[in-house]
Amino acid sequence: MAELRKNLAGVLVTRLKLFQESLKDFQNSLEDFQESIKNLRSMEDNQDSLKVFQGTMKGCFRSPVDP
Questions:
Q1: Is 70 exceeded by the pLDDT of residue 62?
Q2: Percent of the chain as helix, strand, coil, to the nearest 5
Q3: N or C, which terminus of the chain has less Cβ within 10 Å?
Q4: What is the spatial distance between Cα 18 and Cα 10, in angstroms, rounded to a whole number?
């Protein structure tokens, strides 16, 4: 009976360690996903800034006779 308990405890410890590693991998994946979202938001901000800059540049190079 003691041998059975020892074996079950060993299996349990191994499974818990594997589960813990899986959770760490999942956490890393979530962090990577968060970073991707931040990069997308930054790209959107850059596009907005570029649109403003393009509008400014159009105003600078408009000829005086243009309406």
A1: no
A2: 90, 0, 10
A3: C
A4: 12
